[in-house]
Write the C-alpha cells for this entry.
Amino acid sequence: MKKRFSIPLIVVVFLAAFIGGTQVNHLVSGDNIYEQLSKFKDVLSLTEKYYVEDVDTKNLTEHAITGFLNELDPHSVYIKPQQMQRVTEDFQGRFEGIGVEFSIVNDTITVVQPIGGGPSASLGIMSNDKIVKIDGKSSVGFSTEQVMKGLKGPKGTKVSVSIVRAGVKELLEFEIVRDVIPLYSVDVSTMLNDKVGYVNVTRFAETTHREMVAALQKLKLQGMKQLVLDLRSNPGGYLDQAVKMSDLFLEADANGNPRKVVYTVSRKSEFNEEYFAYTNNNEFEKMPLIILLSNGSASASEIVSGAMQDWDRGLIVGETSFGKGLVQKQFPLSDGSALRLTISRYYTPSGRLIQRSYENKDKYQEEAFTREEQEGENLEHKESVADTARPKFKTSKGRVILGGGGITPDFIVKPGNITKYSVQLNRRNMFYEFITGYLTRTGDQLKNTYKSDLVSFNKNFVIDSTLMNEFLAFTKEKKVEFIADDYKKDKEYIEARLKAYIARNFWNNEGWYSVLLGIDSQVKKAITLFPEAEKFARLN
C-alpha cells in the first residue's frame, strides 16, 4: 500500500479493534482497550434506545471517530466510503468540474489543492480555502455527494462559490467556468530561454516519475542545459515518487555509495525506514538545478527539496515550505471507508524534521501562510533574532541550514502581490469572460496569423491600448469598480493575464505558462542564480 504524508501512531491499535474487532489488546500498554470499547458501546446503545428522537448510529459512530482523530494531529483523517472514489479519481483519469481536490473538515468544504491548470487555480483559489456557499446557498454541512453535485458539471457551465480564507476578513466571491480536468502531475514543461528548462510539478501521483522523465527528455532535445523545477504549491503525494524524482538528480557519493533521500522515525520500530537514491550515471545528475518552493509546498515536495539542499545538489528559491512531514498509512475498513493515520515522521538526510509544530491547531494552517520572511541570500542560513531558537544542521559541504519545520530557501524571494483591483478582476472571472468574447470575434484571424507558433505569438502579440480599453469598458459594464492607482501598479500583470488566456486557448498550459512566467519575479530571480547552482553541481 502506498504511503501518504501525515503523523505518530497513537491509536492505530485502538482503531483496528474498534472498527474491525481485531484482538490486539496485548499491543496496548497501560490501557485496557476493551473497557473503553465497552464504554463506547454502552453510550451508543443507550443513546439509540432512549434519546428523544430517532438517531442514526452509523452517523454517530463516524462523528465519534472524527472526534477522537481531532485530538491527534491535523493530518490523521477518516475517509467515508463515498469519498474513497474521489480519492482514487484525484490521482487517476479525468473529470469535468471546477478543478479542486477537497475534504470536508468540521462540516465545511476545504480545498486540499486547486488542480494545476484548472479553472479554480487560474482564478486564484488556494489550498485550505473554505467553500461556505455554492450558487449563493450555504454549503456548510454538505455531504460528499452534495459537494460533487454542486461543483462538478459539464464543461462551459458556471458555478459561483463563496470562500472563507485564513487571514482575510471578508467573504471571497468567485464565479467559475467548469472545464475538463486532466489529472497530470507535470503541468507544463517548457524552455525559458535557449538553455534553461522549466518543469512545473503539481502533485506526486502514480505517474509523476514517468511524466517527469518524459518532460526532461523532451527539454534536453530542445537544448536544456539548466533546470528550474517548480514545486510551488505542490501539496505532496506518494513517497515512492518523491524518492524516484530525487534519484534523477542525486549521484552516488565519492565511495560509490547511494545517497540517503529521507528517513522515517516512528513510535513502533517496524515503521522506521530509510530511502536512498541508487541510480548511477543518470544524464541529469550533474545538471545545474534550482527548485522553487512556496508556503504551500508540502510533504513530498519538501522531501525532494530537503534532499537536494542537504546534499548541496542545487539551490532552493522562494518561500519557506509548509512544514508537513508526517507519514500516513491508509487502513481500509470493512464498509469501504478508510482510516488515514499518522504513523511516523519524516527527516531529511541531515536530520531535519520536516514537520512544523501543530501545538496550536486553530492557527496551524494560517501560520504557514502568514509568516514573515526577509528577502535575500540565505546560503549560510544566518539566523535573525526570530530564528535563535531554531535548531541548526549542516549540509554535506558544511553549510549551516535551519530546522524547525519546513525547508527554508537558500534565496528567499517573495511572490509579487497584486492590488485589490486585480484581485476583484480575478474573483469575478473578468479575464476569462472578456477573452472568450474576444476570441469569438478574432480567434480565426489569430489562428491564421500565428498558426502553431507560440514563440512568434509571445514575441509579436501585444495587448494594445485599443484592446485594453475594450477590456476596461467590459469590466465597467460588469460593475467592477475601477481603481486608477491600482491599475497603474498592475498594468503589466493585467496585460499578461489577458495575453495568457489567449495563449492558453491555442497552446493549453504551455501557452499559459509561457506568458505568465515572463512576469514571475521568483522565476526571473532563479534564472540569474544559475552561476551559483553550477558551483553546486560541480561540487557533487
About this structure: The first strand starts at residue 4 and ends at 5. The chain has three domains: 9-78+184-324+371-415, 94-182, 420-522. Residues 484-516 form the longest helix (33 residues). The chain has a mean pLDDT of 87.
